[in-house]
Amino acid sequence: MFSVKDLYYRYPKQDKDVINGISFDIKEGEIFGFLGPSGAGKSTTQKIMIKILEDFRGTISYNGKSITEFNDDFYEDIGVSFEMPIHFSKMTALENVQFFMKLYKRNADIETLMKRVGLWEDKDKMVGEFSKGMKIRLNIVRALLNEPTMLFLDEPTNGLDPTNAKILKDMIHEFKQQGGTVFITSHIMADIDQLCDRVAFIVHGEIKEIDSPRNLKIKYGKRSMTLEYKENNHTVTKEYPLDGIGQNKEFLELLQTKDIETLHTGETTLEDIFIKVTGVKLHDEK
Amino acid sequence: MKSRLVVLILGELNRLNKYNVFSISILVAFIWGTILFFLDEALLGSLLPFVLLIDATLMGVIYIGAVTHFEKTESTISTLLVTPIKNSELVLSKVIANILHNLFSATLIILVFIFLKDVDINLLLIYLALISSTAFFTIGGLCLSYYQKDFTTMLVNIMVISFVLLIPSALYLFGVLTSPAWDYILLINPIQAAQEIIMGAFSGYEYTYKYFVSLAYMIVGSILLYQFFALPKFQDYAVKQSGV
Ligand SMILES: Nc1ncnc2c1ncn2[C@@H]1O[C@H](COP(=O)(O)OP(=O)(O)O)[C@@H](O)[C@H]1O
Ligand SMILES: [Mg+2]
Q1: What is the DSSP letter of A36?
Q2: HEC profile for B85-118?
Q3: Of the candidates B12, B244, B79, which has an alpha carbon nearest to the alpha carbon of residue A86?
Q4: Which of A10, A11, A44 to mutate to test ligand 1, by most ligand atoms within 8 A of the CB atom?
Q5: A2 in Cβ contact with A61 (< 8 Å)
Q6: What is the pLDDT of residues B106-129, one digit of tens each?
Q7: Model confidence over B184-193: pLDDT tens digits?
Q8: Residues of chain A with pLDDT > 90: what percent?
Q9: How far apart are CA B49 and CA B52, in angstroms?
């Protein structure tokens, strides 16, 4: 659906590229995660893909046609949320939504949408009085106003409490279920680990790895079995390779003779894999 | 379906209203009414053109500067960039909304004058003058705001520019510059040109080429400023100010 090839980008009046030749495809109907530490180039990439930053090098095509050939009708099809939630603060939530709705040919049902994010009761409040979480939720409403076929979400979970983050992730999932395609960025792995069909690791404007979270875990994860058991009032921890575990005598004997406390496979988190692949920590030091 | 441009203009006007800009205009008209009440008959004749001139030029620039300033603090332009709206619609809606607002405040002031004292004014010509000069100064103000860090700096720059523009006019007025050619050269100053066409709406004005040159200046100047500056530079400006 979206295809990015050999993309380079340099901000005006800067002497260094911040995107250094990245390539990836987003397939129709998938949730594609763009993961990397702050400053990696995630927002820049999104802004190029949504035709805000123009002087890029490389090719980007949408449904087989270069995005530079699209006019402003391009935006009838996509929904965008920026890193910062942005609204007219002196207007109510409903006024904000209604203003933007009139700019599109296609409109979603806003009552359903605003109820879904729990903002319907506050629709007549000034957005300036909204909490950050409410502004982020309103941002999502706006991104979905025109019933887009593709969503671009820049760090949508950033600053959301777990309850709101759950609502948001469920909505993204529903959007996909209805056939939508999603590009989503984050610097917090755990946030979108379960959500994404595929993820790209981006560091210093370069993509280090692209695959499904599951494949990445198989490829880089430690395949092991860890068990803990009680012995002389101590907890002992042992680890065995997962391959051929059924024939592992020592492991089997422990299972039969000891008082087992815990037993689990060595799940490596996406975050561990990110560090392993890129050699870079995800969280910014700020 | 209402045209997008109308939606945008109404949105701009609605926002001007929320920022109390309309209330300020009403207050200004009220203040003029009070001043008028105590004013000498002799001064009245030149006061109205002067007030309207300030309204169409300085206020036009300041209001658009204020609007873009509010917009900058809210970074709302970036969200408009990702809707199907064309840049031309965005720029035009701002210019038109600003002209409408200025006409509103000018009308209030004119009404106050007509109501309190008798003034002889050609309404058709005054609106032609107000629309064309407000358009010029609004578009000029918009271009200026593309390069301003903040509103205060912009205000200072406007003061400096107006002052510099006023020097030759003042020198001419006080007889330092005497050649009749200055009559026309001074029209390069857009404030002077605006004054010329505003004066044209009042009785007793003598029509010369100056009037038509000034009118053409405001209209053609507006179009050129829009076409070659305000519109092409808009994307860069919008992207720069949306950059988080
Ligand atoms: N407007 C800008 N001008 C110049 N450099 C910028 C601008 N915006 C971002 N950058 C630089 O580009 C790099 C990538 O930034 P960004 O795409 O925002 O990263 P991320 O979204 O992954 O945190 C950073 O080094 C940042 O400093
Ligand atoms: Mg970012």
Answers
A1: -
A2: CCHHHHHHHHHHHHHHHHHHHHHHHHHHHHHHCC
A3: B79
A4: A44
A5: yes
A6: 999 898 888 877 778 899 999 999
A7: 778 888 998 9
A8: 62
A9: 5
Query: Where are the domains positioned within chain B?
Result: 2-242
Rounded to 5 degrees, what are φ and ψ at A148? -70, 160
Q: Which residues pair with A60 in a beta bridge?
A: A4
ipTM value: 0.85
Protein residues placing their CB within 5 Å of the ion ligand 2: A 42-43, 83
Structure tokens at A5: 């090839």
Cβ A139 vs Cβ A81: under 8 Å = yes
Name the one residue in this structure whose structure tokens are 């012995």: A231
Place of tokens 């100056």: B210
What is the CB-side half-sphere exposure of residue B166 using CA atoms within 13 A?
Answer: 8
Mean pLDDT of all residues in A44-66: 95
Instruction: Give the CA diameter of chain A.
Output: 74
- The mean pLDDT of chain B is 87
Query: Is the pTM above the cut of 0.90?
Result: no
Residue in B4, B75, B236 closest to A86 by CB: B75
Q: Determine whether B151 is exposed, middle or buried from the number of CB atoms within 10 Å of its CB (0-12, 13-18, 19+).
A: middle
Indicate whether B151 pLDDT > 90. no
CATH architecture of the domain A2-212 equals 3-Layer(aba) Sandwich (3.40)
Lookup: tokens for A29 = 């109907």
Contact A103 B2 (CB under 8 A): no
Instruction: Centre a 10 Å sphere on the Cβ of residue A81 and count the other Cβ atoms it contains.
Output: 26
How far B154 CA sits from the closest chain A CA (Å)?
Answer: 23
Where does the pLDDT of residue A119 fall: very low under 50, low under 70, confident under 90, or very high at 90 and above?
very high
AA identity, residue B169 = S
